[in-house]
Design goal:
Blueprint: H1 5-12, H2 36-45, H3 48-53, H4 61-67, E1 70-73, H5 87-99, E2 104-112, H6 124-132, E3 141-146, E4 170-174, E5 192-196, H7 203-210, E6 217-221, E7 228-232, E8 238-242, E9 254-259, E10 265-268, E11 277-280, E12 288-293, E13 298-301, E14 304-307, E15 310-311, E16 323-328, H8 333-341, E17 348-353, H9 361-365, E18 369-373, H10 379-391, E19 397-402, H11 408-418, E20 431-436
Parallel strand pairs: 1-2, 2-3, 3-4, 4-5, 5-6, 6-8, 7-9, 8-10, 9-11, 10-12, 11-13, 12-16, 16-17, 17-18, 18-19, 19-20
Antiparallel strand pairs: 13-14, 14-15
Helix pairs in contact: 2-4
Length: about 475
């Protein structure tokens, strides 16, 4: 039966749904419309291979590539099998330096051996010619090392022209042997320097510091000949040190900070190879210190001398230190009590377990955060933690970094029951945090934090 006319009319007056309006597509920007100086700046920031390939975009882009400050990095030249012999990489570098008029912004040669593993050709003359290229006259950043060679009895010499760049602001040199005489070498604008895996004596680092009147950060990593290092610099802010063990003997015997009025951070990473003696007698603004191992034979902080972390004379305070990292074979209170008394304004303590007390001022008024690495819940571990929980009146966070493999939830609940209840804590604001890892936390390994001057706590985030 047909529906009534009125009903048909009512339905016929219903409006059809309005289709959603599709906004017009935004016009796609044509990168070629950008000013040439902007395109050149972009090309300069591209990886080396990508920067070179921009010449294929259009005929005019060859001129843009030539006008852009050169960024040349041998690890960014994706030529197989470059990682095996480097012959094609070396040829490409020569070609790029011949085609580009300069200036260069950055040069990084980290992936080439001196001698070709394929042809046996000696590349030293090639390296020397690259560093003499006028394209590099005003280069701002240089990184150089020979690729590691097995069974190499001696390190190859650093090409002399690698030290000629007076506009440098950042430099790293490694796996080579420096010239014995650095007279005449000057880096008036250099602020960041890394020396690693060198076989020279400590005179090299002393001469390099003297050659850098504006240096702000210095990283010394695995240099086997730096036995007794003496740091004197009016501008140095951050010193990083990592010394691996060499022939079962300490590679570094002593580190002395004698005149560093601007130094704020002394960062010690791997300590297997020393130093076994540290003297900090001229760093009045030191704010971050560590990680200090309990294996130190002698530690001098100002006028205070500690023998195996035990004070042997009257303790004087270093009020500037706010962050301290320590390591010891076990959570042993007697090892750290004296050293804590040296830092009455300490705010954050990192402690790594590598295997009636006097009042301590930093516990009363300043210490807010403690990180305990390799906490396993032994009686000694818990006693160590309880001491700080019951005595640190402004403590806000205690972090337990535990190498735990078993059921984490059950283990953590059991450990929390061992710790003082909130009502018994010296600070009612204190919180506990548990962080887990499947292996032991060892040395702090991110040595590049030495140059991260904007980070107030260089140990934060490092497992």
């Amino acid at each position: 039966m047909a529906p009534p006319a009125t009903q048909r009319r009512r339905r016929s007056h219903k409006k059809a749904p309005v289709a959603a309006e599709v906004p017009p597509e935004a016009p796609v920007a044509d990168i070629r419309a950008l000013p040439d100086e902007v395109l050149s700046a972009i090309i300069s920031l591209l990886p080396t291979d990508a920067g070179v390939r921009t010449r294929a975009v259009a005929s005019g882009w060859t001129a843009l590539w030539r006008a852009a400050p050169l960024n040349l990095d041998d690890r960014e030249l994706r030529l197989r099998p470059s990682w095996r012999n480097g012959d094609r990489v070396a040829a490409r570098i020569t070609s790029i330096l011949s085609a580009h008029p300069g200036p260069a912004r950055r040069l990084s040669l980290m992936n080439l051996t001196r001698v070709s593993n394929t042809t046996g050709d000696d590349r030293y003359a090639t390296f020397d010619a690259w560093f003499r290229s006028p394209v590099l006259n005003r280069v701002k950043e240089v990184h150089f090392q020979y690729l590691y060679r097995y069974r190499a009895d001696e390190l190859d010499p650093l090409p002399l022209p690698a030290l000629r760049f007076t506009d440098l602001t950042i430099a790293s040199y490694g796996r080579c042997h420096f010239p014995d005489n650095l007279a005449g070498v000057r880096f008036p604008n250099l602020t960041q320097l890394t020396l690693h895996d060198l076989t020279n004596a400590e005179r090299t680092v002393h001469d390099m510091i003297s050659a850098c009147p504006q240096i702000r950060s210095l990283l010394l990593r695995n240099n086997k000949g730096f036995r007794r290092v003496r740091i004197s610099s009016p501008t140095l802010i951050s010193l990083g040190l990592s010394v691996g063990e060499h022939d079962d003997e300490p590679a570094m015997e002593q580190l002395t900070i004698v005149d560093a009025p601007s130094m704020e951070r002394l960062l010690i990473f791997d300590t297997e190879g020393g130093p076994i003696n540290i003297r900090v007698i001229g760093a009045p603004n030191l704010r971050v210190l560590g990680s200090l191992p309990s294996s130190l034979l002698r530690l001098q902080l100002g006028n205070t001398v500690l023998q195996e972390m035990i004070a042997i004379n009257a303790i004087t305070s270093m009020h500037s230190v706010k962050i301290l990292a320590l390591g010891a074979d076990g959570f042993k209170l007697n090892i750290i009590v004296d050293i804590l008394r040296c830092f009455p304004c300490l705010e954050k303590l990192y402690f790594t377990n590598n295997g009636a007390l006097l009042p301590i001022q930093c516990l009363e008024t300043h210490l807010k955060e403690i990180v305990l690495r390799n906490f396993t819940g032994t009686r000694e571990d818990v006693r160590f933690a309880k001491f700080f929980i019951l005595n640190s009146r402004v403590l806000e966070l205690m972090e337990f970094r535990a190498p735990v493999r078993q059921s984490i939830k059950k283990w953590e609940a059991n450990e929390r029951r061992k710790l003082p209840k909130k009502s018994d804590r010296a600070s009612q604001a204190a919180r506990f945090r548990f962080v887990y890892h499947t292996c032991l936390f060892r040395n702090y390994e991110d040595t590049n934090r030495t140059h991260a001057l904007t980070e107030s706590d260089p140990f934060k985030g490092m497992l």
